[in-house]
Amino acid sequence: MKLSNTLKLATAAGALLISSMSFASAINIADNDLAIHGYDPVAYFTQSKAVEGSAKYTATYEGAIYRFASEKNRDLFKSDADHYAPQFGGYCAMGVVLNKKLDVDPQAFHIADNKLYLNLNKDVQKKWLTDVNGHVKTGVRIWNGIEDLPVEVVNADD
Hints:
The protein is of the alpha+beta class and about 160 residues long. It has helices at about 1-25, 40-45, 70-80, 80-85, 95, 120-130, 130-145, 150-155, and strands at about 55-60, 65-70, 105-110, 115-120. It contains eight helices and four strands. The strands form two sheets. It has a two-stranded antiparallel sheet with strand order 1-2. It has a two-stranded antiparallel ribbon with strand order 3-4. A hairpin with a 2-residue loop joins strand 3 (about 105-110) and strand 4.
């Protein structure tokens, strides 16, 4: 009886671990579950610039904690998180096009078709800007195949 319960518990714990690893890898978060390095996703749209958020104003979306510069921005995000959250789970948009999950520089951003795209840095962003529409189409196709894979698997050298 004890072995049966132990096996059930181990199986449940393993499934939960795999499930949480898969979910966590779909969103680019730091060790503290913070998205976009603490920058306010709404400010990209309302102020056209990267603005650091405050720990005073937060919201959780898809397992990630987002910070905001104001209560108003937090409330806007809560009313339409799908719109304000960065595309490709907040990973580098150009990296996704190249079949990678890379971190981002919150200052390297671009809004296209009312969607937020982040990049590794400003140099990578220059490459992204050479064909935004084409890169978005490619990125969406690739993201569908790598979204739930762990970063280590996606970024492994072949």
